[in-house]
């Protein structure tokens, strides 16, 4: 491939990506406006596990809370489109197209929604109950609606993101960046990284929330290793490299190996 054709292909790819991002941004804006109309009902959904009244301490407080909830809802509902644009951009250089692109988008969305539902149904109620368990007759909660919305959205989105770990691991094994054996040999370091991520991503630094995030994350790490083994990604990559070597190609570049002229 000449440098001119490569540059033309890159320009075409970037222009398509820009159009996709522009269309996605417009869709997020429209969906935010639509959800803003019914954002009062969304606040009730957010408040379901709180069992406490919410207060605001500025004139714009309620309005900003409704905007945040509507924007969060737009991102949540449009996540399949977001993941499609993301994987189309990241996967194109590594040959992730067609069926591979479909399965990566499908798995990413499935795990994201599974993580957010798990957080909302299990982790969030336990975390809120634990934190409010420290109140007493002398200490009564006066919870700001803005901070509570931030708490819930960050917590839920963080769980959705960390549940993508198996997809990230499979992608790394697919392109040959990290092998399954590397994931298996570095479990102890993975546990340390998981603990650090749990401490950084949880909105509160208590041990309960960290455990509720770190525990599922480690199980997902093991699930990623299992899927890589079942799909035989390492073996397939080695077989592909051997096949390329037999036909006189460089397995890294996929181009014929130069031979000295006879």
UniProtKB/TrEMBL annotation:
<keyword id="KW-1003">Cell membrane</keyword>
<dbReference type="GO" id="GO:0009977">
    <property type="term" value="F:proton motive force dependent protein transmembrane transporter activity"/>
</dbReference>
<feature type="transmembrane region" description="Helical">
    <location>
        <begin position="101"/>
        <end position="128"/>
    </location>
</feature>
<dbReference type="GO" id="GO:0033281">
    <property type="term" value="C:TAT protein transport complex"/>
</dbReference>
<protein>
    <recommendedName>
        <fullName>Sec-independent protein translocase protein TatC</fullName>
    </recommendedName>
</protein>
<keyword id="KW-0813">Transport</keyword>
<keyword id="KW-0653">Protein transport</keyword>
<dbReference type="Pfam" id="PF00902">
    <property type="entry name" value="TatC"/>
</dbReference>
<dbReference type="GO" id="GO:0065002">
    <property type="term" value="P:intracellular protein transmembrane transport"/>
</dbReference>
<feature type="transmembrane region" description="Helical">
    <location>
        <begin position="63"/>
        <end position="89"/>
    </location>
</feature>
<dbReference type="InterPro" id="IPR002033">
    <property type="entry name" value="TatC"/>
</dbReference>
<keyword id="KW-0811">Translocation</keyword>
<dbReference type="GO" id="GO:0043953">
    <property type="term" value="P:protein transport by the Tat complex"/>
</dbReference>
<feature type="transmembrane region" description="Helical">
    <location>
        <begin position="148"/>
        <end position="177"/>
    </location>
</feature>
<feature type="transmembrane region" description="Helical">
    <location>
        <begin position="211"/>
        <end position="231"/>
    </location>
</feature>
<feature type="transmembrane region" description="Helical">
    <location>
        <begin position="189"/>
        <end position="205"/>
    </location>
</feature>
<keyword id="KW-0812">Transmembrane</keyword>
<comment type="similarity">
    <text>Belongs to the TatC family.</text>
</comment>
<comment type="subunit">
    <text>Forms a complex with TatA.</text>
</comment>
<keyword id="KW-1133">Transmembrane helix</keyword>
<keyword id="KW-0472">Membrane</keyword>
<feature type="transmembrane region" description="Helical">
    <location>
        <begin position="21"/>
        <end position="43"/>
    </location>
</feature>
<comment type="function">
    <text>Part of the twin-arginine translocation (Tat) system that transports large folded proteins containing a characteristic twin-arginine motif in their signal peptide across membranes.</text>
</comment>
């Amino acid at each position: 491939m000449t440098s001119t054709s490569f540059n033309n292909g890159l320009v075409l790819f970037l222009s398509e990506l820009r159009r996709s991002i522009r269309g996605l941004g417009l869709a997020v804006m429209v969906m935010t406006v639509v959800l803003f109309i019914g954002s009062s009902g969304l606040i009730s959904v957010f408040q379901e596990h709180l069992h406490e009244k919410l207060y605001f301490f500025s004139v714009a407080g309620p309005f900003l809370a409704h905007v945040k909830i509507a924007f969060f809802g737009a991102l949540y509902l449009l996540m399949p489109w977001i993941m499609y644009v993301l994987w189309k951009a990241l996967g194109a250089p590594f040959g992730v197209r067609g069926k591979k692109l479909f399965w990566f988008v499908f798995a990413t969305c499935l795990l994201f929604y599974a993580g957010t539902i798990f957080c909302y149904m299990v982790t969030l109620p336990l975390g809120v109950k634990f934190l409010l368990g420290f109140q007493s007759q002398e200490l009564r909660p006066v919870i700001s609606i803005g901070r509570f919305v931030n708490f819930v959205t960050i917590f839920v989105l963080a769980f959705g993101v960390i549940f993508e770990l198996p997809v990230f691991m499979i992608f790394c094994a697919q392109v040959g960046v990290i092998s399954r054996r590397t994931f298996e040999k570095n479990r102890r370091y993975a546990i340390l990284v998981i603990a650090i991520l749990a401490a950084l991503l949880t909105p509160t630094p208590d041990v309960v929330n960290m455990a509720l995030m770190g525990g599922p994350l480690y199980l997902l790490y093991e699930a990623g290793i299992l899927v890589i083994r079942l799909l035989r990604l390492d073996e397939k990559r080695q077989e592909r490299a051997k096949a390329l070597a037999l036909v006189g190609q460089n397995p890294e570049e996929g181009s014929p190996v130069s031979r000295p002229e006879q």
